[in-house]
Structure formats: structure tokens, C-alpha cells
Amino acid sequence: MTRYSELARRLDAPAADAWAVHDRALAMQRSGEPVVVLSIGDPDFRTPDPIIDNAVSHLRIGRTHYSPALGEINLRRAVADYENRVSPHDCAVDQVGIFPGVTAGLFAALSCLVDRGDGVVVVDPQYVGYMPMLLGLDVDVQMVRARPELGFEPTADEIIDAIQDHTRVVLLNTPGNPTGAIIGAETLQRVLAECQARDIWLVTDEIYSMFTFDRPHVSARTAAERLDNLVVVDGLSKSHAMTGWRVGWTVAPAEFTEHLGRFAEMSIFGCPQFVQDAAAFALNNDEYYVRDMRDEYRRRRNAVCDRLDSIQGLTARRPEAGMFVMIDVRELYADDQQFANELLDTVGLSVLPGSAFGESTAGHVRFSLVQPLNVLMEGCQRLETFVSRL
Ligand SMILES: Cc1ncc(COP(=O)(O)O)c(C=O)c1O
Predict the structure, then answer these.
(1) Total number of domains constituting the chain
(2) Is residue 56 in some structural domain?
(3) Ligand 1 mean position to 386 CA, how many Å?
């Protein structure tokens, strides 16, 4: 019998049921059932036309060759300029690495920081993409439970208390998926200072940085007093509705970025030139696309939360950021998987069970805002119909 690597076998562990409801909803949709699918995280917006035009024109002039492993200088410069606009610390091009999406940037950073068995502190609930990565790296996961009563924002003490002798990395996602919780500047500053004192690294995934609704995002780089032992990962997937383009980046000390460069060289070997050209254009001219999309997400969040507030038995948590609303269903159902399955079967609405993201969001479901307002309102209506029948 063919033998595969230990890594391949680890990754072959049965996937969490995270996507089971979503997969079933898509199958029902394919068979013609009028299902409302609010279990996704891919923005419904089209990538803005000027970005598409820019990529096409660069394709036409032959920007189709190999690119340096760490990225084209024009995009690295655009990211550094962006960082210099939002953070008080200087950012130079040699601190920036370009990767095909935040996922690849995170994987490169973690791969250069941890060995098998090292400890990585992560917050529960977490983005469903983290666990396979941590499993792949075979690290010891040290979980911090975020509490619903604190709006799922972990405290500095909770994060610091989770650090053990073998911890090498603290991985934080702010604003967070699925809850939209923002980790405050003071918490980031304290955690980073602790990491620096113990030669541990703080890696932050800030992919929702451009979608905060009530107060501006504070990056770990902005909160930091010193930048050593800090890697910030961000990208254009959500902010510019560019999930399929695969554009992300790391901002880290120059010496660490050189390690990332060697990792990139033996793994991704550079991203497409025309994609990077368009990404640089997007970042340099992004004010109005991002503002318009953020305004629309805010409008959707307000309309959905106002509507859900009128449904008895449900408690919608108004997110400060991101593209999702967490709804507490514990008054009605102990099991969020069962709630999501019955919701799909009886009224044709698909949302993700909160337990897919961790124990802290068990008893909740994730209602996605990445559909036009009329579809979201139809989703709320179906939710009300379902709840009123109970
Ligand atoms: C927190 C978080 N990080 C990373 C990703 C993946 O980002 P990318 O598509 O840029 O790899 C997602 C996508 O949903 C996410 O929610």
C-alpha cells in the first residue's frame, strides 16, 4: 500500500463539521431549492473595475514573468506606504513580504518560527483555517477562551497566562472572525511587551483591518512600542473583494523578512506580476472603494441587527468589525449544530454553527453579511419564521 508522509496523514484527520451545513445548503441550491446561503465569507461585491482594468492592461504588456520571491518592489513599496500612513513606526520595503493571500503569509511566518511540539497560543473562537495549519506544523495549541460577556475580546491577562515555557508564538486575529471582536491597543501592547521580554513572537492576522464600523482599527504595529518579535499579516481578500486574486503580505523586522524570503523561494516562488501590479494600484488608490464597501457593510450590520433585535429568543451581538453577526440561540437550543441543521431543513436558511469556531461560540450561529440587503432581510424573515414555530 502506498505510504504517505506523516504530514499528509495529519492533514487527513477528519475535518470538523464546520462546513457540513454549508455544503448541504449548496447541494440543495444546485438541485433547485430556493435556499438563502448566509454561511459564506466571500464578499458578494465585484472587485472594483479600475483594479480589474489595471490587471488586464499589465497582462497585455507582458507582466507575466517570474517575480522576486518576496514580491515586486512596487507592491512592497505600496504596502510600506500604507503602513506609514496608518502606523507611527517607519516601515521600509525590506520589512514587507508579498504572499498569495493571508493564509500563505501566516503559514510562512509560523513555519519560520516554530518547530514540532512548540507551543502556539491562540484564541477560541478562531478562524477555521488556523487549526489545519497548526495541525500541519504539529505544534502544541494553547487555547485562550474568549468570553461572550466581554464581546469575545480576550484580555491581556488571559493571553499572557496562557503562555508556557515552550510557547514560541502568540497568534491573534483582530478584528476577529467569526465575532468581529477588536483586540484593544493596550492589550496588544502588553502582550507584545511580554512576548519581547520572553523572546516569543506575536503574529497578528489583521485581514479585517479595513472593516471596522465604530472606531478605527488599531494594528499591533500601531500599538507597539518596539517592533521586534512582531509579524503583522494583512491582505486585500476582504477589503477589496479580491479573495480569488490571492494577495497578502507580512510586515516584520527585516532580518525575519529575509527568512520569509527564503521560505517563499522554496515554496511559492513568487506571485503573478500582473496581480501584484493591480494590487499596488488598489492599495495606492483605495480610499473610495474601501470606504464604500465599509459603509455598505455597516448599513447591512445595522439593518440586520435591528431586525434580529425584534425576534424574541435570539440575541444578536452587534459586531464592531468584519462581515459576520454572531447570534446567541441558547435560549432556544442547547446545540447550535442542531439549530443550524433544522433551520436549513425547515426554512431553507444556511448559517454556520458557532461551535465550528470553538467552544466559546458554541450556542451561537454565524450570520454572514456578504449578500445584498434584500437577501439578508429575507434571511432574517426566515429566521423569524423558524423561531416563531418553536
Ligand atoms: C481571519 C482570517 N484569516 C485569513 C483568511 C484567509 O485569507 P486569504 O484569503 O487572504 O488567504 C480569512 C478568510 O476568511 C479569515 O477570515
Answers:
(1) 2
(2) no
(3) 31
Closest ligand 1 atom to residue 248 Cα is: 10
Are 29 and 37 within 8 A, CB to CB?
A: yes
How many C-beta atoms surround the C-beta of residue 48 within 10 A? Answer: 20
Q: Read off the pTM.
A: 0.96
Quote the CA–CA distance of 350 and 374 in Å, as a whole number. 16
Q: Considering the domain boundaries, does residue 36 fall inside one? A: yes
Ligand 1: nearest atom to the Cα of 41: 14
How far is Cα 249 from Cα 247, in angstroms, rounded to an integer? 7
Q: Is the CB of 101 under 6 A from ligand 1?
A: yes
Burial of 24 (0-12, 13-18, 19+ CB in 10 A): middle
Q: Is residue 99 in contact with ligand 1, taking CB distance under 6 Å?
A: no
Domain check: are 225 and 261 in the same one? yes
Q: Which domain covers residue 112, as residue numbers?
A: 64-286
Do residue 256 and residue 292 come from a single domain? Answer: no
Q: Which atom of ligand 1 is nearest to the CA of 236?
A: 10
Q: Is 102 in the pocket of ligand 1 (CB under 6 A)?
A: yes
* Dist. CA 102 → ligand 1 center (Å): 6
Q: Tell how far the Cα of 343 is from the centroid of ligand 1, in angstroms.
A: 26
Q: Is 129's C-beta closer than 6 angstroms to any atom of ligand 1?
A: yes
The CATH number given to whatever domain includes residue 90 is 3.40.640.10
Task: Find the 142 Cα to ligand 1 centroid distance in Å.
Answer: 21
Ligand 1 pocket, residue 177 CB under 6 Å: yes
Nearest atom (ligand 1) to Cα of 42 = 14
Task: Say whether both 275 and 355 belong to one domain.
Answer: no
Ligand 1 pocket mutation, candidates 237, 271, 370, criterion most atoms within 8 A of CB: 237
Whether residues 373 and 248 fall in one domain = no
Alpha helices in 163-285 (DSSP H): 185-197, 220-223, 254-266, 273-284
How much helix, strand and coil, in percent to the nearest 5, is found in the chain?
45, 15, 40
List per-residue pLDDT tens for the chain, 390 residues long. 899 999 999 988 766 566 889 999 999 999 999 999 999 888 899 999 999 999 999 999 999 999 999 999 999 999 999 999 999 999 999 999 999 999 999 999 999 999 999 999 999 999 999 999 999 999 999 999 999 999 999 999 999 999 999 999 999 999 999 999 999 999 999 999 999 999 999 999 999 999 999 988 999 999 999 999 999 999 999 999 999 999 999 999 999 999 999 999 999 999 999 999 999 999 998 778 889 999 999 999 999 999 999 999 999 999 999 999 999 999 999 999 999 999 999 999 999 999 999 999 999 999 999 999 999 999 999 999 999 998
Residues 378 and 311 grouped into a single domain = yes
- Which grid coordinates belong to 192? 507584545
